């Protein structure tokens, strides 16, 4: 299922640091939830449905519900790793209210993700932070671990999109991420998406196709939706004029803004504000 990390709710069951004992063996005891293992150091064998896989330090392991696993550590180079056992669900808010939660069957992450050097420090540091903060039954400490989990999952998804440390397609993944960041931060300015795409060094057609495969819509549709989201919030939560909101959200004139807004939302900006009540929250 499609999901956004920011729309996910999580419950952390357990955070456990596994000691680096030579030759230890174990199996996955709980297969009903999701599990992360982060391997700091050492070598070993992980056996799943895909057969035996050699693992080593700097690898993130993701186990989705129902996946069995057998683990064996090397005698000479014992595995040192941390486990995070969790459940997660998609939870979204629309004009009618809250939707969900809908349990996540599987995240967009591979079973094994060998990390590039720039991610090893970040993700390893987040697991160490989770180890330090985890106190079961302490709601404050559990909330801190949840905040760490969100950062961890975002880092993991970005690493997976970039292809770990063994993917020759890393260039397009990095270009795609930077291209999206320009849309996210530059939505209020007028620009041509084709020219912006050309700045990445990839052809606009290829970038557009790759963007759609990654985010489920074209860059233009993404930008239109992003501008609309900003406009909706300004109409609801500020006293700005419709003309000022149009300008702040990247529209060349109020007519263009009103036409696009009504097409997407079914009502004009003014009618939307009257219905939902606009007022300054500053």
From TrEMBL:
The keyword Membrane does not apply. Keywords: DNA-binding, Transcription, Transcription regulation. Residues 177-275 form the HTH araC/xylS-type domain. InterPro entries: AraC-bd, AraC_XylS_family_regulators, Homeodomain-like_sf, HTH-like, HTH_AraC, RmlC-like_jellyroll, Tscrpt_reg_AraC-type_HTH. GO terms for molecular function: DNA-binding transcription factor activity; sequence-specific DNA binding. This is AraC-like DNA-binding protein. It comes from Paenibacillus phyllosphaerae.
